[in-house]
Structure formats: structure tokens, C-alpha cells
Amino acid sequence: MGTPAPWSVLLLAVLVGLCTSPVAQGKPNFIVILADDLGWGDLGANWAETKETPHLDELAAEGTRFVDFHSAASTCSPSRASLLTGRLGVRNGVTHNFAISSVGGLPLNETTLAEVLRAAGYSTAAIGKWHLGHHGHHHPIFRGFDYYFGIPYSHDMGCTDTPGYNVPPCPPCPQHSAATSPTNKDCYTDVALPLFENLTIIQQPVDLSSLVEQYMEAAARFIQQARDSSRPFFLYLALAHMHVPLQIAPPPDRGIYGAALREMDALVGHVKHLADSCGKGSTLLWFTGDNGPWMQKCELAGRLGPLLGAWQRAQGGSPAKQTTWEGGHRVPALAYWPGHVPAKRSSHAMLSTLDVFPTLVALAGATLPPNRRFDGMDVSPVLFGLSDVGHKVLLHPNSGAAGKDGAVEALRLAQYKAFYTTGGAKACDGSIGPEEHHRPPLIFNLDRDIQEQEPLDVASREYQAVLPAISRAYAQALEDIATDNTTVADYSKDPAAVPCCSTQHVACRCHAPTSHTASLDQHTDGRATRLCLNVHTVHGHPTQTRIKTRGEQGQLFTYTYSS
């Protein structure tokens, strides 16, 4: 790896300090690392052509690799909502991405994994990308997390001073005057990207070049405080990698994407050291991704490996992120827990990010929330190597491609994959596959055709034999959803909901503090129950900002700032 970065040397010093702290006994610690837009072929352990992931490959060698593991959706917000609730978007209400001006978020009557674990005695933290609502009660501090440090949505949803690599590129934040209209309509120039610590914006725009260092420092601080309190901890680390823009200085012998992938790999290696710092066997580390690569980003998109979605490619358009093709939702997954999860093992059980919630709840000795059904299941027997049997059926929702957002457009039954709708996602060449509805469905045998190239002939004996079972499974799944307690997310927008640390400066620009010394329990032990940010205006000009928050005993605190 060459000369270590200065922040990695500092981290080693922190690790020494961690080992002097008391270790929580009984319940295991949990670290869930969620990469962003990572391709199944981006791990060397999955795809031999990949050479930039030595730490992840080591994690695979010392733990278990899951080769048939799937995200619950193929885009950001729905995938994250499902991981933290164990329920598909058609149940929890999160069917597409939230905006920077979204008023709502993950519905408040949905219980998060952090809420269950905190009630079971865990210290909880979310570090990194949230994208499940940032306004009012939807902020992670009010969704079960004692501590939050990160960006409220994707890091391409706000301008920065050093934009990094994107396709097409976006301009930096304006410095002193109003933003000019970018040639790329997907660029954000009016509002800078904010970085939060708990409820406070500590930097806007974010310095993307220091984000890895800041995330690692925040993780080390949180684990230190959890150990000082002798409580087990749950750390949800949602990385910016490998989503664009990629902020990296690539060496001459390696491309931009490969350099960013190597940086992410090094970060995971440091997290593994954190997990091992006070004795191996006390912490389960679960690494996976939120969805497949964003193919319209061309050379800045991840590697699909064998998951080519060849049938869709022949029609035009992408077979990856946003879609129900394997490249959109089959993601890398590794579990590491010395003494519990077998080493050097590859599991072929069909699993999902939906399983993280019920599995960790079971391992913590807690109980699932009542009065709702879950799409995930406790897969601890698979983790422990006692079984290699996962789901028989998996549902794949539309995540921004053709069809209705959140609707189940594909279904997996054993080795068979049925598509009811295809098309609608943009490829690198700009093509968008035509929206096609398939009745009867397209069916692929993934055991023979992982590239999803040739659907079964509808007249074949194999198709006719499997179609009734697929149709029954599809009908039963839709009936189960229709009779469940489901919710609907609020996707309304209001400019006042946009995070802005200073309405007096262009793009909401403000200076970062000189040090990050905020206590993890500075907001009524991290458990205040209400946050409102209201910007009052006169003739369009801000005059007053008011923040209201309620403590655990119901007391109301109001802070008003004049502009």
C-alpha cells in the first residue's frame, strides 16, 4: 500500500487507546458497512480481474462470502429504508429517492433497526450517507441513532468547492455571486452539500477530500465512547464510495475508478482493525452494497462481473442500478466474526439486505416490532455455517426504471428469475431501453444463464413446468403485501426544508469549526424527540430562524436567531 496516510497513523494511535477501555460482555457489537453503487465485480474475491481490494479480499478469506446476495431495491433511499426496517418499499412507503427539499422521509410509524437495538441496550451511531429524510423527526438522531455524522443524502446532491470526477462534470460552488445555470441539469449549484454532526451543520460545502478521514475519526470516537460506557454498539457506516463524484487523485498507473475503489478498500481495512481492536470475536462486521453500478456514468461506474443483463443490453439501456436485472440488485456481501462466522467459506444461499434487520435483532436477544410483516428473515444459521438455505422467493421492485416506483416487477424463485416489466434505465451511450410489459413473464434460468441473455422459450417444457409455481408465488406475495400494515412516505417538497447553515451567503456557504469536539450526548443524550427548522421571510428575505426541540421529559426548547 506504500506510505500510510497521516490520518491512518493517527487512527492506529486511537486503536491503542480503544484497547484500554472496558469491553461490553454478553451481547455482540455490530458494524454494518454499506457501500454505494458498488458492482458485484468490484471485489477481487468475486471477480479475479479486480486487483484493488486486498483488504476486502482478506475479509472474505477470514470470513464468509455470499455470492447470491441482493439489495432490497436498486436505488438509494428504498434500499436503505429496507435495510433499516426489514421491509420492502411497498410496505414501508419508501419507493423512490428523497430530494434535498423533501419534507418527509422514512415514515415515522416504521421502526428502525437502531430503535430496536437501542431499546435492547445498544449505543447506536449512523456515519455517512442517510437519504431517508433530514427534516424534523426524519433526521437520523430521531430514528434511533444516539450519534450521527454525515451527509443527509447523496453527495452529488449539492455543490462543493472541489467537485471531483463526474460524467458529465459539474461546476464548483459559486463563491461570491449567484450560481450560473449549469449545462448539466443534474448538477446542483444553488445549495452547497452539508456535513452534519448530530443536528448541527458543521461544514457547508463539504470538503470531499477529507471525508474518509472524518468518517474514520467519527467511528473511532463513537466506539471509544461506547466502550467507555460498557455498552455494546451498533455502527451503521454508509460510505460515499463508489457513488459519483469520485474525489481522488489517481496515480499515473491506475484509473480514477480503480483509485477510488482502492481508497474504499483501505477504509474497510481500518474498520476491520477497529472491530478487532479489543479482542477478536466481539464484533460482527457485515459489508454489502446498496445497489449495483450506475452505468450511465461510463468509466466512473462499477464492474458488473458476469451480471451483464445481456437481453436488456440488446434492447438498449442499462441492466444495472435502478433496474431489476441482476446487475442492479445482486451486490457483494461479506460477513466477518471470528469464532462465529466460518472463514474461507462461500455461501450460495439466496439472501438479501432485508435479512440484516431480523438477524441482528435475533443476535441481540431482542424481538421484532409487532403488527407488521417482514420480508427479511433471521439468517444466523447461514452466517454460522450451519445451513446454506436462504430465501426460496425474493421480490425485486422497480427502483426508477420502467414501471411504477416500488412495484414488484421481477421475482426470483430458486434458480428462476421472472420479469414482468423491463427497460427504462439509461446506459453509458445514452440509450434508454423501451418500457416493455411481459405477460406471461420473461423467465431466465440463472444456473445456466447468469448473464440473463436468453429467456426460456414459452413453449418449452421447462417454461411450462415452472410458470405455475412462479405465478402462485407472485400472487401470494402481492396478497401478503395488500393485507399487511403498510405506510406511505410523504414526498412533498418545501424550499424551507433544504439544509442551509447561512441564508446570508451564496449557496448557504459557512465555515467549518476548527475542531470536532461535539459530545455524542449533547442533544439530551441524543434522544430529543422533535426538531423544527423554520426560516421566516419578509418579501422573500430571511429575517429569523427558529429551532424547536423537545427533550425526553417533554420540555420544549426554542432557539431563535435573527438574520
What is the fold's blueprint, element by element?
Blueprint: H1 6-18, E1 29-35, H2 54-62, E2 64-66, E3 69-70, H3 76-85, H4 89-92, H5 113-119, E4 123-128, E5 147-150, E6 195-197, E7 200-203, H6 211-228, E8 233-238, H7 256-276, E9 283-289, H8 310-315, H9 326-329, E10 333-336, E11 345-347, E12 351-352, H10 356-363, H11 380-383, E13 393-397, E14 408-413, E15 416-422, E16 436-445, H12 461-482, E17 530-538, E18 541-550, E19 556-562
Parallel strand pairs: 1-8, 1-9, 2-11, 3-12, 4-5, 4-8
Antiparallel strand pairs: 2-10, 5-6, 6-7, 9-10, 13-14, 14-15, 15-16, 17-18, 18-19
Structural class by SSE content: alpha/beta
Number of strands: 19
Q: How big a fraction of the residues is strand?
A: 15-25%
Helical fraction: 10-25%
- Helices, by number, come to 12
Give the end-to-end Cα distance, rounded to a whole number of Å. Answer: 50 Å
Q: Can you tell me the overall shape?
A: globular
List segments where confidence is low: pLDDT < 50 over at least 5 consecutive residues. 12-17, 19-24, 513-563
**Largest beta sheet: strand ordering:** 7-6-5-4-8-1-9-10-2-11
Q: What integer value in Å does the Rg equal?
A: 23 Å
On the 0-100 scale, what is the average pLDDT? 88
Q: Biggest β-sheet, characterized?
A: 10 strands, mixed
EC number: 3.1.6.1, 3.1.6.15
Keywords: Calcium, Disulfide bond, Glycoprotein, Hydrolase, Lysosome, Metal-binding, Signal
Family: Belongs to the sulfatase family.
Pfam family, one: Sulfatase_C
